[in-house]
Task: inverse folding
């Protein structure tokens, strides 16, 4: 009983293959008349962690909403295993793709156990009530996120870090094969940021869940992502292995920021060190 | 929101990243199944207490003024037991009145709670939003202009409620419906409707005004059994729709994006829940008029009794029934020789309830 036995226990709800082909073809996304994402061709690598980065207002969150079927494409398509996402039944999509929006709001007075249980919604109907499988999955989700002790607490009494883990537990209870997260580390201090990202990496390795997350921190994105997607002004600037993608030229063109890219002393992944107007000299020593 | 964020190394459970993944076995009593059972037990206790309170209120309404023997004899007669004696006062006056009070309270309680939950706004109830007012205006118009009475007035009231609801929805639509805009549009329409009612009343004859009055404040009066049956039948028909609405609300309560991610189309689901709420309010108003504040206070009272999250629909229905039965009791017997329409009593109760609601909301730092 060491490690996390609960995660690996096969439950009837967990299918054997989790890899799904999620891609966009010539995708335009818009709010009313304002086109936010233009002509996007993007393939999400199945079973891997993808980070979406880009300057503010570049359409990262909009892309995530499009991938989650929350926004109907203006043009082009989102394809899930070759099927147009918008033609699939919403219940079926909810069983495969989960989304955790940026700073979600919990209903007043809800307990942690109740909130996490809401993640089971796609697996239930108004006639099909709560089952022991649901209890098992919720208990697993709480254990995996280290929130089992909080089960009886009210969500509005929790700290920011605890609350974010509870929302992650809800997404885990939904048990999607593809999990989309919009800035899951916002408002968290550095300890909790690392904790949440480690948790997502665990989820990816142990369950094979495909993770797509919008991140602001380029260095954390480079560390945790297998695949980096860079957007600017609604268009795809670059996509691929962070080590190949994240260069000083790319940071300059996508973010209009002069920066050095050095090796992360811990992981060796690219690390972006901004220069800024006041700190141009002396030259930074490049670590390897 | 940010209080806990900056607390470095707060010794809360699981904050230490090393201990986070393996903290599950330390707390068997807080298992989610146990937490759910505790919540359900509390809900059951609250529902049981509300049922008892409702039964006491119903018994008091039936037997008020020393009619216990008469009531028992009448019930014996209804059940075909020996020693039964049909009573006019019990069977024709009090029993349908109490039955109508219970049914109307249930309908208003459910309707208001559905509105408040789906629009995420405690002000969003059909009586505040002019939906009940639409029923009043249409009923007054039917009596004063068309000169009809009875079932035709009820039909007009039903149509008036639907018409106002059907006007609010598109007027508050801006690429989706927000609770805030819905409430603003509804309150504006409530003022317009009230002006219309005032206009009709000023040009009406004095004896007609009395007939219209019950439609402006809401009154149980002395309903006939077919009217009671109509409302009961409507509630039975709407019950499955309420169950579906309650289920949808579990997802909608989390916000549109999360609801969408859980497989609910937010706009369609919201429209569905609102339609059920409007149907409940319209059918009840068509029988008893817009009894003030019942739809408004039932949900908040029920939620405070049940605690936890969720719309607490069953508790809201029972609270609504208790409120109307008790208010009707006061309206009939509590104000000396004068019998007043029940809506006057609920209005008197409603104002302090609103103040209490605002006070408790402010304590949590969420009051506007």
Result:
């Amino acid at each position: 009983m060491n490690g996390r036995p609960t995660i690996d226990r096969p439950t009837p709800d967990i299918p054997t293959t989790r890899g799904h082909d999620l891609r966009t073809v010539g995708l335009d996304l818009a709010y009313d008349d304002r086109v936010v994402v233009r002509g996007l061709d993007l393939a999400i690598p199945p079973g891997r962690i993808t980070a979406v980065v880009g300057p503010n207002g570049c359409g990262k969150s909009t892309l995530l909403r499009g991938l989650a079927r929350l926004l109907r494409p203006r043009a082009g398509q989102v394809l899930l295993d070759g099927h147009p996402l918008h033609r699939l039944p919403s219940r079926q999509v909810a069983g495969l793709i989960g989304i955790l929006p940026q700073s979600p709001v919990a209903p007043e007075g809800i307990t942690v156990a109740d909130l996490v249980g809401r993640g089971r919604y796609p697996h239930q109907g108004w006639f099909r009530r709560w089952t022991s499988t649901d209890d098992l999955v919720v208990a697993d989700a709480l254990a995996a996120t280290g929130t089992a002790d909080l089960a009886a607490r009210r969500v509005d009494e929790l700290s920011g870090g605890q609350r974010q883990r509870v929302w992650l537990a809800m997404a885990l209870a939904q048990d999607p094969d593809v999990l989309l997260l919009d800035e899951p580390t916002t408002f968290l201090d550095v300890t909790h940021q690392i904790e949440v990202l480690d948790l997502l990496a665990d989820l990816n390795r142990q369950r094979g869940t495909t993770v797509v997350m919008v991140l602001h921190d380029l260095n954390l994105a480079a560390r945790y992502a297998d695949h980096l997607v860079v957007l600017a002004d609604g268009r795809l600037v670059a996509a691929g292995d962070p080590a190949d993608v994240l260069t000083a030229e790319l940071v300059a063109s996508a973010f209009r920021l002069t920066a050095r890219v050095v090796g992360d002393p811990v992981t060796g992944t690219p690390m972006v060190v901004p220069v800024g107007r006041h700190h141009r000299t002396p030259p930074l020593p490049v670590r390897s | 929101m940010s209080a806990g964020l900056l607390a470095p190394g707060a010794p809360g459970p699981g904050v230490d990243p090393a201990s986070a993944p393996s903290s599950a076995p330390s707390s068997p009593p807080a298992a989610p199944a146990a937490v759910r059972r505790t919540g359900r037990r509390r809900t059951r206790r609250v529902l049981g207490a509300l049922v008892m309170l409702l039964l006491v209120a119903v018994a008091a309404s039936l037997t008020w003024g020393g009619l216990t023997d008469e009531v028992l004899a009448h019930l014996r007669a209804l059940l075909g037991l020996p020693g039964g004696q049909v009573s006019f006062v019990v069977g024709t006056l009090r029993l349908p009145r109490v039955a109508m009070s219970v049914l109307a309270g249930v309908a208003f309680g459910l309707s208001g709670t559905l509105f408040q939950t789906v629009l995420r706004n405690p002000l969003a109830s059909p009586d505040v939003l002019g939906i009940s007012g639409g029923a009043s205006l249409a009923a007054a118009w039917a009596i004063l202009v068309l000169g009809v009475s009875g079932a035709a007035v009820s039909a007009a009231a039903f149509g008036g409620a639907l018409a106002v609801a059907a006007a609010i929805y598109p007027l508050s639509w801006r690429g989706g419906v927000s609770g805030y805009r819905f409430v603003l549009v509804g309150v504006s329409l409530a003022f317009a409707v009230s002006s219309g009612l005032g206009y009709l009343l000023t040009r009406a004859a004095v004896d007609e005004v009395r007939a219209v009055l019950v439609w402006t404040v809401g009154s149980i009066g002395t309903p006939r059994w077919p009217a009671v049956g109509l409302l009961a039948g409507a509630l039975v028909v709407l019950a499955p729709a309420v169950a579906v609405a309650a289920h949808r609300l579990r997802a909608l309560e989390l916000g549109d994006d999360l609801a969408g991610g859980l497989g609910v189309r937010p706009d369609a689901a919201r429209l569905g829940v609102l339609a059920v709420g409007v149907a409940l309010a319209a059918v009840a108003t068509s029988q008893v008029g817009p009894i003030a504040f019942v739809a408004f206070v039932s949900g908040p009272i029920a939620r405070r009794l049940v605690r936890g999250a969720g719309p607490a629909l069953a508790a809201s229905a029972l609270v609504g029934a208790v409120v109307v039965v008790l208010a009707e009791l006061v309206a009939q017997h509590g104000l000396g020789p004068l019998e007043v329409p029940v809506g006057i009593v609920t209005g008197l109760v409603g104002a302090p309830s609103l103040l209490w609601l605002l006070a408790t909301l402010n304590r949590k730092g969420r009051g506007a």
Observations:
- DSSP finds 13 helices and no strands in chain B.
- Residues 24 and 302 of chain B are 34 Å apart (CA to CA).
